[in-house]
């Protein structure tokens, strides 16, 4: 099939994508969600003065401009027009701030990454921010409030000196680098190996993470660790994905997902109650973005979190100040982007190429200049959840074993207007032959036919 045909099919599917889950009825309220986003945006703009949210106060730990970067990032994620004079003023303000703090520099990198195209005038600053963060990780891959670089040894990290680190700064540092990497800034493999080592060493026996190397696992740090593990896994093993040679049941991720499946909450920061709750939700959203998972265990994390935020929103549109509101808005904004593909998780080799949908949706986003998402679903979910996206993608490197109930559910999805798209990872003939039998069982009156090239 020619690329022009593929482009037409993807474009048609993309514009058919629902912005939110279909047919949720009384369980879900699109209008309430849109209204919550609108009110949060209005609140943030009400707190802005001449492109800044910093208020003239002295910033701690080198994080001058950090609050403005966070607010601008949230507004762009929620759909603000980069040509809006208020956004232009915010971008110009951020470009002029001298930032030394990990939080501020990382958040500003995320701002630049939200701008369309790779030739915008802030591209040079994005590269500088990313390089600053890459060089700022300490010798074991952690970050302090002000990055100290490789000169900080492992033993120094235990004191209150330049070697101090914590996993909150470490998360934001990595997310800033990831934002640049996703937008074409070259990041050395040695950096990702260093970061991987840090987070593997800091993972607790129960699969979660805490503020530093030892302690009790809790929500905001556990989602920080899990998102980082997904990011490192993608960066370090992508060449093996192409050849279906990577071991996709990566132990730190498996353990981290088990912790989150067991402990996820949409209304509290697990292990910390309401402390840093909105920051925790932002971390949950980052795990969703990095992994593609729609569910943690049987819990639809986005729907549950969005419902909680809608109910908790204050009369002025905030969730209690600009920082909490920005994190809440960053969580909600994910639902504004249509889902192009659902990828089916089934018993077997469904994930031989873990980043196939991630790479495709990234390419579609850039090609059509419209953000689209993907997610992982399973057949234990109701059929209506499969309709989050117009296309259900089934990949495999061996024959899938679907039950009669599974086949009936897939058939129902198609009869309701969905499209099945199956692909044999690394051209595995066993998968292709098995899927032909499954399609014949699903629709015995119809014969599969090869499409002409035109």
From TrEMBL:
Matches recorded under InterPro entries: DUF4159, Terpenoid_cyclase/PrenylTrfase
Pfam families: DUF4159
Domain DUF4159: 342-454
Name used for this protein in its record: DUF4159 domain-containing protein
Protein's organism: marine sediment metagenome
Organismal lineage: unclassified sequences, metagenomes, ecological metagenomes
């Amino acid at each position: 099939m020619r690329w022009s045909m593929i482009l037409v099919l993807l474009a048609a599917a993309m514009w058919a994508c629902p912005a939110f889950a279909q047919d949720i009825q009384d369980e879900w309220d699109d209008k309430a969600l849109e209204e919550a986003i609108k009110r949060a945006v209005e609140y943030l703009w009400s707190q802005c003065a001449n492109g800044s949210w910093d208020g003239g106060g002295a910033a701690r730990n080198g994080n001058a401009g950090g609050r403005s970067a966070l607010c601008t990032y949230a507004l762009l994620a929620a759909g603000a027009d980069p040509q809006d004079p208020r956004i232009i003023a915010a971008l110009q303000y951020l470009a002029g701030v001298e930032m030394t703090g990990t939080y501020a520099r990382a958040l500003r990198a995320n701002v630049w990454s939200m701008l369309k195209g790779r030739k915008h005038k802030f591209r040079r600053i994005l590269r500088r921010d990313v390089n600053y963060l890459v060089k700022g990780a300490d010798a074991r891959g952690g970050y302090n409030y002000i990055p100290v670089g490789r000169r900080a040894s492992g033993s120094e990290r235990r004191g209150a000196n330049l070697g101090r680190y914590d996993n909150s700064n470490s998360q934001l540092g990595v997310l800033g680098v990831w934002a640049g990497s996703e937008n074409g800034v070259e990041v050395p493999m040695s950096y990702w190996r260093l970061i991987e080592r840090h987070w593997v060493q800091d993972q607790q026996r129960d699969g979660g993470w805490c503020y530093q190397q030892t302690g009790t696992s809790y929500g905001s740090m556990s989602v920080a660790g899990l998102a980082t593990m997904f990011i490192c896994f993608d960066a370090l093993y992508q060449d093996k994905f192409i050849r279906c040679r990577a071991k996709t049941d990566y132990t730190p991720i498996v353990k981290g997902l088990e912790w989150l499946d067991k402990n996820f909450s949409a209304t509290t920061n697990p292990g910390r109650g309401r402390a840093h709750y909105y920051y925790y939700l932002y971390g949950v959203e980052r795990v969703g973005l990095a992994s593609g998972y729609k569910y943690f265990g049987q819990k639809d994390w986005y729907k549950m979190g969005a419902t909680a935020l809608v109910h908790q929103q204050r009369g002025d549109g905030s969730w209690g100040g600009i920082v909490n509101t920005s994190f809440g808005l960053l969580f909600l904004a994910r639902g504004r982007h249509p889902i192009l593909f659902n990828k089916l998780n089934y018993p077997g080799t469904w994930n031989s190429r873990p980043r196939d949908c991630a790479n495709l949706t990234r390419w579609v986003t850039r090609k059509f200049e419209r953000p689209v998402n993907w997610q992982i679903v399973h057949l234990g979910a109701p059929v209506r959840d499969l309709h989050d996206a117009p296309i259900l993608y089934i990949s495999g490197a061996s024959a899938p074993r679907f039950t009669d109930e599974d086949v009936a559910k897939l058939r129902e999805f198609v009869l309701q207007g969905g499209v099945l798209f199956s692909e044999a990872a690394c051209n595995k003939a066993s998968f292709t032959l098995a899927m032909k039998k499954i399609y014949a069982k699903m629709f015995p009156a119809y014969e599969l036919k090869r499409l002409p090239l035109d």
